[in-house]
UniProtKB/TrEMBL annotation:
Main localization of the protein described in the UniProt heading: membrane
InterPro entries found in the cross-reference section: Ig-like_dom_sf, Ig-like_fold, Ig_V-set, Myelin_P0-rel
Protein name: Immunoglobulin V-set domain-containing protein
Signal peptide positions on this chain: none
Species of the source: Hymenochirus boettgeri (Congo dwarf clawed frog)
Length: 133
């Protein structure tokens, strides 16, 4: 049996960048393209035939080269949602603290005369003595 050898391209845009990555024994004719660039975008067709084959299936692959983002979209979404939630919680907390502080201020600043205090104490002591046994 003749040993099958893959051949790299002799010319074209992939010269020096296309490397064999398949396994002929498993009928895998994969290639690896190094240093891929935006000009490599496109649809590529591949037809592999070995003599005495006369027919082969046409392979098609769509290549899209995109720039890698430093911050992922999920990270941005998480920051926006987390930041918004934190702001809402902070606003609610500030509102509650403001209301509490105003209530405390109102209770502390209500003047009560000595006469009113005596009357309140007398009312409470009468209520306690009138408890039926």
């Amino acid at each position: 049996m003749k040993k099958l050898t893959p051949y790299p391209p002799f010319k074209g845009q992939f010269l020096g960048r296309a490397v064999w990555d398949g396994n002929i024994n498993r009928k895998d004719a994969s290639i690896l393209i190094r240093n891929i660039q935006p000009v490599d975008n496109g649809t590529y067709l591949c037809l592999v035939k070995n003599p005495p084959d006369v027919h082969g299936e046409m392979g098609e692959i769509l290549v899209k080269v995109v720039n890698k983002e430093k911050i992922s979209e999920i990270m941005v979404l998480a920051l926006v949602i987390g930041g918004g939630t934190a702001v809402i919680i902070l606003l609610v907390l500030l509102f509650v603290l403001y209301r509490y502080w105003n209530m405390q201020k109102t209770h502390r600043s209500t003047p009560v005369s000595a006469l009113e205090c005596t009357e309140k104490l007398n009312e409470k002591s009468q209520d306690m003595t009138e408890v039926p046994a």
